[in-house]
Amino acid sequence: MSDEELHAIQIHLDRLLAERGMTLTELSSLVGITVVNLSILKNGRAKAIRFSTLSKICEVLECQPGDLITHHPVGPA
User: Does the residue 75 lie in any domain?
Assistant: First the structure.
């Protein structure tokens, strides 16, 4: 299996944006990250995220990292 198939991290950016009535473009502007990079994160295709980026997203969305990112094991460890 490829790394993508084993990927067990889920990003809940869609839900958080909807709950706050915010668009990806608005978040991009407030966080200082391109819409393209936020879209990659939102769609679960990001391979990594900087702690500074995570901190800024959490600051703007007034959430904790665990609200944005969860881990769901996909198979035997």
Answer: no
